[in-house]
Amino acid sequence: MIIGPTHQDKTNSTVKPPLPPPPPTAYSKTKRQEIRGYELSRWRLYLTWLGYLVTAGALRLLFYWLPQLQVWCQCRACHLVAAEQVVLQDQQNSYHVAKVHTITRNGTGVKVKQPAKHVFMNKRARDTTIYSPESDDSLIRFFVVKKLKYIWDPEMRGFIPLRGLDKGHKLSHFHRSEGLSENDQRKRRFLYGANSIEVHVTPIVTLLYKEVLSPFTIFQLFSMCVWYADEYYIYASCIVFVTTLSIILTVYQTRLFERTLRNTISKNTIVSVCRGGTEYQEISSDELVPGDVIEIPRQGCDMLCDAVLITGTCIVNESMLTGESVPVTKTTLPNPGPMSGSASPSDLEPDLDLKHHSRHVLFCGTHVIQTRFYGNQKVKAVVLRTGYSTSKGELVRSILFPKPAEFKFDRHSYFFMAFLFFVAAIGFVYTVVLMVKDEEEPGDIVLRSLDLITIAVPPALPAALAVGVVFSQRRLKAEGVFCISPRGINVCGTIDAVCFDKTGTLTEDGLNMHGVVGISKSRFEPLVKEASRMSSGPLLTAMAACHSLTIIEEQLVGDPLDLIMFEATEWELLEPGQDETRFDMMTPTIVRPRSSQLSKNALDGGDVGIVRQFPFSSSLQRMSVIVRKLGATNFDLFVKGSPEMITALSKKESVPFDFQQELQKYTQRGFRVIALAWKPLPSKLNYVKVQRINRDQVESDLTFLGLLVMENRLKCQSAPVIRQLLEADVRTVMVTGDNMLTALSVARECCMVDRTDRIIVVQAYPPEAGQSQVTMEFVYADDANTEVEEVHSTGNRTIQIDEESQRFHFALTGKTWAVIRQHCPDLLSKLVVRGTVFARMGPEQKAQLVEVLQDVGYYVGMCGDGANDCGALKAAHMGISLSEAEASVASPFTSKTPNIECVPCVVKEGRAALTTAFGVFKYIACYSLTQFVSVLILYWIGANLTDAEFLYIDFFLITTFSITFSRTGPYHELVRERPLVSLLGASPILSILTQMILVIAVQTFMYFNVQKQPWFVSFQDNEEDDYMSYENSAVFFASAYQYIILAITFAKGAPFRNSIFSNYWLLANIVIALGATIWINIYPTDGLAELLEIKQFPPMAYRALFIGVAFINFLLSFIIEKFLIDNEVLREKVRLRLKECLPMQDQAYAKIESEIEKDPTWPPVSNKKVDLAEIFQKQESVVSVETKMEKSKVTLEDLLEHSDHEDGTALLSGEENEVDSSPNHDTALPPSYEVVSQATSSFLSSQTLLQPSATSSSTASSSTSTSSPSSSTTQQESSKTDEGGKEISSTTETVTTSL
After folding, report:
1. Is 246 or 64 the better-scoring residue by pLDDT?
2. Which pick of 227, 257, 806, 1063 has the fewest CB atoms within 10 Å?
3. Given 451, 501, 562, 1220, the catalytic residue
4. What would the mean pLDDT of 1190-1204 be, rounded to a whole number?
5. Per-residue pLDDT, 1245
C-alpha cells in the first residue's frame, strides 16, 4: 500500500501547515539510550558501491562487522519524524541498526511516497504538498531492537518502547474490564504482535555464514591462503582442520543452546477469554493481547502472560523468576472505586504499580497451582503484558542479549594485537624494500611480505586463550560449581568485593523455634521454650491462625517461618475435601488444637475459623488475619510482623517499657524476632463488612501480645570463609532483607566486622512538607553488651588497647538507601566504600548496591540463594547462586553445595585463569615475535625457515605448549596480592620487552658466530627455494630452544597458580620437546635431517654449543622474570615513578577512602547514647511517600457509622450491595464435608454475620476486594422477583476455603 498526497492535494486542497523543519541531527535521548534517525542519500549510496569495487569487497565486510558505519556512510542524519532507519545506542555503548516500518491499524504494510521535488516550485506550493505520516493516527510507525518494539509517539515526537497496561491505569479500570471484541483484539494484535517468547533456532547455513565472516576466521582464511600459496601445505591443512572443527563445535553448541532454551521457554496452550458479559471463547495463548480478560483454570496452569487478578485467589509457584519454590498467594486486586464524599475520586485512586501490587499479579513463567472461588464463578485476570515485554520475556532477553563484559584484559588485548599489526607493517615494508633491492619476482615479494604478517600476528591466539578457560571450567565443575558463562571466569580473578545475602547464604536455610516471650500486665514474661505448653489465649491463637499456610496434596506448605510457628503450637489445620470440590462450599479454613477429638456431630470450643487474610507486604512489614472463634459474637484481628512496625501500630500502654532492651537482648545474639498483636473487632462489624474493609482501617490500636524468637544459625563454613576473604584483602558486604539488629549480630558473628571496629548506623529521613533538605543521622551502634575477649600477657610485655579505634563500618536500611538515592545520590559512593551491613534491602536495591560498588571501581561478586537475588546476581561481575532453581539461569555460576565455600574457590580459580591468560598471551606474542625475528634475519640473505622447520615449531612445540600450559590449577591459598589486569601495564610490557631483547641477542649472536667458523659455507640464493644452510640451522636451533625456555619462564606458580611441578602434562611436554630438540641438534638421523631440511654442523662440539647458549639464555630469562619483573618491591617503585611522570588515575574507591581518612569531621557521629531500636522505630514512624489508597481518611468508626445508614453498603466500593440473609444450603454435600459444614454453620450463623440490605430496583454489582489465601469472597447471583414481578439480581456474599 502506497500513500501520499493526491493530485488534488497538490493543486487546490488546503493542507495543515507543515511542522517546522527539524535540525538535521535531531534525536531521541533518554537516560539509558539514544536513538538517531537517518534517511537514504543517493549520492552517498553510489559512492559506497564504488568503495565496494575499489576495496574488492573489504569495505562491505567492514560494514557487516559494524553496521552503524554503513548507515553513517549511506544515509544522512534527519529528524526522527522522517527517519527511514535508526541507530540506537544503548547504555553499554553498543550500536543497533533497525529499519523503521509503517503499517495501518489493520496491519497493512504502508510505503510512504514522498512528493516529487520540482526545482521551480515556489515555497508556498512546496509547503502545501508536504505529507506527514507521523501525524496520521491511522498509521503505526515502529522498529524492533533486541526483541523490543519501539513505536512513534506524536506527543513526545520520538520513539518509545511499546508498553502494555502496566502503567498509567487506575485500579478500577481493570475491574470494569469486560473483555475485548474479536475486532479490537485483532487490531491490538497488529500492534503488540503474537504473545509468544520465540527463541528461533538459527539455521545451520546462517550460523556457518556468521562464523566464517567473523574477524578472527577471516584472518585465519587469509593466513591459510598465504600458506597454501607458499606451499606450506601441512600446517595450513592442520589449521584448516582445527578451524573447521572449531566452527562445527561452535555451531553445534549454539544450536544446542538455542534448542534447549526454546524447549524450556516456548509454550502454547488454549485459554478462555471473555468477549463481554458471560460470553467466553477459547483461543490460542499466542493470540492474547493486553486488555484481554482471561479465565484461570481451577486445576492450575502455566502463565504465558503477565495478568492482574480481578476475581478469586491463586496459589502460585514463582521459582522460575525468584528461585524460591515456596507457594505464593495471589489475591484480587483492590477495587477502591469512588471515595464517599470525594469531589474528585480519580485523584485519590492509585494507578497500578507492578512493584506495589505484585501480590495481585500473575507473572509470566510462573505456575498456578490452584485457584479459589465460590461455586461456578470464574477466576479472572486482565492481561497486562505479552511476549518479550513480560517478566519472563525480560529474563529471556537478558539471556539472549547479555550485558557485555567490560574487562580491561580483553580491551587491552585488542590494543596489543594492533601493536603486532604495526610491527607486521614495519616488517612488511622491510621485506618489500629488501626484496625489491634484490630484484626478486613481484609474486615472491607479495608472498613473502604477506607471509610475514601471518607470522607477526598469531592466528592461534584466541584458541590458545580459550583452552585455559575450558580447563578452569572443568576444574570448577569438579568442585560442584557450574558455569554458564565461561568468559566470566577470568573476570572472577579481579574480584575485590563480595556481597552476601544472609538468610540461606550465611545462615542456615531454615529456622528453629527458640521460644516465645509473652506479656502479662504490660511486662515481659520469661521465655517459654515450648509454645504448646502455653495456656490458651490470644498469643497462642495468633501463632496458630496468623499465617498463610495451606494444604496441597495432603501436605502442609507455605512460608518456612509460618510452618515453624504453626507446628510449635501443635495445632492442626483443616481444609475441606479434595481440591476440585473446594469451590462448592462456603467453608473457612479451620485451625484447632490437636487434643480436641472431633466426632461427626460435635465441635470443640477451641476451633478458630480464618475468614479473611491480608497477605504479607514487604513494604508494610506485616501480615494479618481476621478470624472468628466458635461461638464468639465478634471477629478478631491478629497481626504479626517486624517488632518496629507492630509496636508502632500498638497501643502504647500495651507495650512494655523495656521493649527495646528485650528486643536487643535477642537480636544482638542473632535471633530473628517477630512481634504479635491482637485486636477484637466490634460485634457490629458483620461478615460483609469484613470482606469489604481495608487493612489500614483495622490494623491500628492493637494490643501487643509478645515476641516470637527464632534462631537462624550461622553456617559453620561462613565465618572461616569470611576470614579467608578479609585476609586476602577482599571486601565483604552483607545485603539482606532481614532486621538490622539481627544483621549486625550476624556480621560480628561471622567476622565481617572485627571486634574492635565501630559500626555507624546511618539514618536518612525524607524532606518534610515544604522543605528540600534530607535529615541525616549518624549514630554509633550500642555495643555495650558485646562480650569482652580476655587477653593474657606473659613476662614484661605490655598490652596496648586501642580505645579510640578509627576503623568504622556503615550500616543502613533499605529505607535510608531509598531516601539517599532519591535526594542525595552523590553520597552513596561514600557510604558504599565503608558500608558493610545493608538491611531491609529489596531485590531492586540489592542490584542498585552492586551497581554503585561497580561505579566506584570495585569488581563485585554476589552470592545468594537465588530468592530475590536474581537482579544482583546478574548485575555483579561474579554472580554465584546457591540455588538450583530455574532462576539460576540468570547467574553465571551455580554451586551445588549450599554454602559460601564456593566463593573463594571461584575467586582462586579466576585468579589462576587470569594468570594463565596473561602467560598464554605473553607466550604466543613472544612466539610470534621470535619467529618474526628469525624470518627477518634470514630474509637479509634471501633465505627463510623451511616448511618442515615451520611445522616443527608451530605444530610440535607451540600447539602442544599452548594446551598443556593451561592445565596448571589454582594455588591452594587466597593471598592479598592480586593478579595483573592490564596488558598495557609496566610489568607485562617490560616482561615481553626484556625477553625479546634476549631472543634477538641470542639469535643474532648465533647467526654471526656460525659465519666465523672455518667450515662455514654461506647461503646462495637459488630459484628452487632451497633454504638448507648453516645460517638457517643456527637460527632454527637457537629459536627452537627459546620456545621451550619461554614456556618454562611464563609458567608461573605461586601465589596464583600451583607450581609447574604439579602440572605433569606440561612437565612431560617439556621433557619430550627438549629431548626431541636436543636429538635433532646433536645427532639426528640422516632421514630426519633431510626431512627437516637441516644442514648439520660438522664438529660435535659446535652442536653442543647451542645447548650451552640455551642454558645461559634460560638462566637469564628466568632470573629477569622471577627477580626483576615479579619483584613486588621493584614493581611498586616503578608504579609510583610512572605515576609521578604520567597522569595515572587511581580507582575511585581509593580516592574516596583517602578523603574519608583525611577528614576527621566526617561522618558527624552523634555522641549521645541512643538505643538502636528507638532509632529504627523513629524511621518507621516517619510518614514517607504513601500510595493514594493509604491516604484515605476513612476510619473503622466511619465505616460502621456509615453502614448503619446504608445497611451494610461497602463504603469504599461506592456501590449498593444486596445481601441475601438466607442463602441456600439445600445442596447435598459430600460425606467428607459433614464435620466442616458444622463448623461453617457455627462460624457463620450469628445474626450479626449477614444483614439484609434494602431492596433495590436496579441491579447492583460489586467487586471483590483483596481476598485471602484462607478464604475468598465472591458473589452468587440468583434471580428473585420483587412485588411488581420484576426480576432483580440478588448478590449473596459467601466465603470459600482457598489458599
Report:
1. 64
2. 806
3. 501
4. 53
5. 42
